[in-house]
């Protein structure tokens, strides 16, 4: 099994990677966070509760900034690593990886400077942690996170909002189920009013992950003691309370050495009539060991969950990155290539719609099979070939002398008039197919996943395809109308040659001559013209679809974006870049996901390396 050092060290390394790669937790769903999944010990306490003193005594060194007002304004991740006895103590910051601090007053200055570097003169707080590692033979392996102290009032020079901001930041840590809360309370204050205990009770009601620390035991009024608290009767926690005696202000002023202070603390408990029986479980050294052991066991228990969380998140991030697509290339050649690839992807989907791989093509057939025949049937030939109109047109064509045999001119005029009606359905078919094609372009753009990232290119493709379809429509109209005109230019002679013979079959010549100007005569003309027009209608029902497919559908399949390709080929580098100007939010998201993925992968490598070194 991995050793204690390697487990706490492992989490330290992952925490450092989190900070380097921008995972400070608290993202609230925007990005997965590993930071919050890692077990950590967080120090919480009210103002002047003795928080800094406890941390310094655990380390055995003076190194935290002091001063009035809210001094701690960024989380301090304090990573303690035990080294072999005799080796020199030193400190290192994550943000200054090459620099070893052996003078701990310089550490204090650096914490201050680094705090200001992010929060500036404004004295605001920031959630970006400072990582400090201390290597010393006098520490146990332990990581503690020091947060700004809970406070009720901002002092001069600090914004009013800071009180609330601190509470929000502290809460964001202690709320997480992986957080071990080190709740500091001064013994000379009523436990019921302790800020840290109030907060801990709220977020950890069962007290499973709260360690109560009672400071300032030496400052209690004579004749009182804290036995009821320390033995868990005043406020019950799952873990035993630990009492502490830190250096007093006077000791600090006198520069009392921390190692000496630790010895004094041991003596205090050993010789105390009140706490003597608890002496083995009191003091800052004991607290450090207790926490180290607990943190190690929590990490050990959590590793399998963390590993599966890491693997799951890597899958999710990779899936999202795939969905977002690769970043756009920087040089013009690659950009042109990308644009053409994207156009082809669109074109493929568009063709699939026409060829039956996707719905849409059948709607065009619907026009030819239903709408066109229905429109042809509805043409007002009954009115045009009514007895009255036939008589009128024939008589007008005859002029001053009525026709002798067949009313040649009358026939022609009636037929011309009728054929004119075919222009409507011919144009309507072209338009209907045009709109279907246009709609399929819109649909295909929406269905081209690769294009999703590029709103500008989408607009351009749509415009280019729209223009092309417009040209095909023009051509479709010209061609179908020409079919109609051709019918008028030259009539099918055979049809009329057959007519007199059929008429003669019905009776003798004399009878025919007799009813030349009767209603029957005009009715027969009407019916002859009607069957001729019916024959033409049958022809156009077949040839209009051929023209429409030839001019519009086939062209759309063959050359929808040809014109666009030529234009794109002539574009300058910056114009190409403009076509590929991705949605900035999407670019940002890709960057974030890439960094987060890097974090999770490095965490996975760290965990793997520990498992190997068993
Ligand atoms: N006598 C005695 N004094 C203590 C003890 N713990 C802390 N003090 C003193 O209490 C004062 C505040 O201690 P700090 O450790 O600075 O407390 P803090 O919670 O970090 O304070 P802020 O960060 O300023 O809110 C200092 O003067 C310490 O010397 C203790 O156990 N005994």
TrEMBL record:
<comment type="subunit">
    <text>Forms homodimer and may homooligomerize and heterooligomerize to form the phragmoplastin complex. Binds to PHIP1.</text>
</comment>
<dbReference type="GO" id="GO:0005874">
    <property type="term" value="C:microtubule"/>
</dbReference>
<feature type="domain" description="Dynamin-type G">
    <location>
        <begin position="35"/>
        <end position="304"/>
    </location>
</feature>
<keyword id="KW-0132">Cell division</keyword>
<dbReference type="InterPro" id="IPR019762">
    <property type="entry name" value="Dynamin_GTPase_CS"/>
</dbReference>
<keyword id="KW-0206">Cytoskeleton</keyword>
<dbReference type="GO" id="GO:0008017">
    <property type="term" value="F:microtubule binding"/>
</dbReference>
<dbReference type="InterPro" id="IPR045063">
    <property type="entry name" value="Dynamin_N"/>
</dbReference>
<keyword id="KW-0505">Motor protein</keyword>
<dbReference type="GO" id="GO:0005525">
    <property type="term" value="F:GTP binding"/>
</dbReference>
<keyword id="KW-0547">Nucleotide-binding</keyword>
<dbReference type="GO" id="GO:0051301">
    <property type="term" value="P:cell division"/>
</dbReference>
<dbReference type="GO" id="GO:0016020">
    <property type="term" value="C:membrane"/>
</dbReference>
<feature type="domain" description="GED">
    <location>
        <begin position="522"/>
        <end position="614"/>
    </location>
</feature>
<dbReference type="InterPro" id="IPR027417">
    <property type="entry name" value="P-loop_NTPase"/>
</dbReference>
<keyword id="KW-0493">Microtubule</keyword>
<dbReference type="InterPro" id="IPR003130">
    <property type="entry name" value="GED"/>
</dbReference>
<dbReference type="InterPro" id="IPR020850">
    <property type="entry name" value="GED_dom"/>
</dbReference>
<dbReference type="InterPro" id="IPR022812">
    <property type="entry name" value="Dynamin"/>
</dbReference>
<dbReference type="GO" id="GO:0003924">
    <property type="term" value="F:GTPase activity"/>
</dbReference>
<dbReference type="InterPro" id="IPR000375">
    <property type="entry name" value="Dynamin_stalk"/>
</dbReference>
<keyword id="KW-0963">Cytoplasm</keyword>
<dbReference type="Pfam" id="PF02212">
    <property type="entry name" value="GED"/>
</dbReference>
<protein>
    <submittedName>
        <fullName>Phragmoplastin DRP1E-like</fullName>
    </submittedName>
</protein>
<keyword id="KW-0342">GTP-binding</keyword>
<dbReference type="GO" id="GO:0009524">
    <property type="term" value="C:phragmoplast"/>
</dbReference>
<dbReference type="Pfam" id="PF01031">
    <property type="entry name" value="Dynamin_M"/>
</dbReference>
<dbReference type="Pfam" id="PF00350">
    <property type="entry name" value="Dynamin_N"/>
</dbReference>
<dbReference type="InterPro" id="IPR030381">
    <property type="entry name" value="G_DYNAMIN_dom"/>
</dbReference>
<dbReference type="InterPro" id="IPR001401">
    <property type="entry name" value="Dynamin_GTPase"/>
</dbReference>
<keyword id="KW-0378">Hydrolase</keyword>
<keyword id="KW-0131">Cell cycle</keyword>
<comment type="similarity">
    <text>Belongs to the TRAFAC class dynamin-like GTPase superfamily. Dynamin/Fzo/YdjA family.</text>
</comment>
């Amino acid at each position: 099994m991995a050793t204690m050092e390697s487990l706490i060290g492992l989490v330290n390394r992952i925490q450092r990677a989190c900070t380097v790669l921008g995972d400070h937790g608290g993202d609230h769903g925007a990005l997965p966070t590993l930071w919050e999944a890692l077990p950590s010990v967080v120090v919480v306490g009210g103002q002047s509760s003795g928080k800094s003193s406890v941390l310094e005594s655990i380390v055995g060194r003076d190194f935290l900034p002091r001063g009035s007002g809210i001094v701690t304004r960024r989380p301090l991740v304090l990573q303690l690593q035990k080294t072999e006895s005799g080796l020199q103590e030193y400190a290192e910051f994550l943000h200054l990886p090459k620099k070893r601090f052996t003078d701990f007053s310089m550490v204090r200055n650096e914490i201050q400077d680094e705090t200001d570097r992010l929060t500036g003169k404004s004295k605001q707080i920031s959630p970006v942690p400072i990582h400090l590692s201390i290597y010393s033979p006098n520490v146990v392996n332990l990581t503690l996170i020091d947060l700004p102290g809970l406070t009720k009032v901002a002092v001069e020079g600090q914004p009013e909002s800071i009180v609330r901001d601190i509470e929000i930041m502290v809460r964001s840590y202690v709320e997480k189920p992986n957080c071990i809360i080190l709740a500091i309370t001064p013994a000379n204050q009523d436990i019921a009013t302790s800020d840290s205990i109030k907060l801990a009770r709220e977020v950890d009601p069962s007290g499973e992950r709260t360690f109560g620390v009672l400071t300032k035991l030496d400052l209690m009024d004579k004749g009182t003691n804290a036995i009821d608290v320390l033995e868990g009767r005043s406020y019950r926690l799952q873990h035993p309370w630990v009492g502490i005696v830190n250096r007093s202000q006077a000791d600090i002023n006198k520069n009392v050495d921390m190692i000496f202070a630790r010895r004094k603390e041991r003596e205090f408990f050993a010789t105390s009539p009140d706490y003597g029986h608890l002496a083995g479980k009191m003091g800052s050294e004991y607290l450090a060991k207790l926490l180290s052991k607990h943190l190690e066991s929590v990490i050990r228990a959590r590793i399998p969950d963390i590993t599966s969380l890491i693997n799951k998140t890597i899958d999710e991030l990779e899936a999202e990155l795939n969905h977002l697509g690769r970043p756009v290339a920087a040089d013009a050649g690659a950009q042109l290539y990308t644009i053409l690839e994207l156009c082809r992807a669109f074109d493929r989907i568009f063709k699939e719609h026409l060829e039956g791989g996707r719905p849409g093509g059948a709607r065009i057939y619907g026009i030819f099979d239903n709408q066109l025949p229905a429109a042809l049937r509805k043409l007002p030939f009954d009115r045009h070939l009514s007895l009255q109109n036939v008589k009128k047109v024939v008589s007008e064509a005859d002029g001053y002398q009525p026709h002798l045999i067949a009313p040649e001119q009358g026939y022609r005029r009636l037929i011309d008039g009728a054929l004119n009606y075919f222009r409507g359905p011919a144009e309507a078919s072209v338009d209907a197919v045009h709109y279907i094609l246009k709609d399929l372009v819109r649909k295909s753009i929406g269905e081209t996943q690769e294009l999703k990232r590029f709103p500008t290119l989408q607009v351009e493709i749509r415009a280019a395809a729209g223009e092309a379809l417009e040209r095909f429509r023009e051509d479709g109209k010209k061609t179908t109308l020409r079919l109609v005109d051709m019918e008028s230019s030259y009539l099918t002679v055979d049809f009329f040659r057959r007519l007199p013979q059929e008429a003669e079959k019905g009776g003798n010549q004399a009878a025919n001559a007799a009813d030349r100007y009767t209603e029957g005569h005009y009715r027969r003309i009407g019916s002859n013209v009607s069957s001729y027009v019916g024959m033409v209608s049958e022809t156009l029902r077949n040839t209009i679809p051929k023209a429409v497919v030839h001019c519009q559908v086939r062209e759309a399949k063959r050359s929808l974006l040809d014109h666009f390709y030529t234009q794109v080929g002539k574009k300058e580098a910056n114009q190409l870049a403009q076509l590929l100007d991705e949605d900035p939010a999407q670019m940002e998201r890709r960057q974030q996901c890439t960094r987060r993925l890097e974090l999770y992968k490095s965490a996975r490598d760290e965990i793997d390396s520990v498992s190997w070194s068993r």
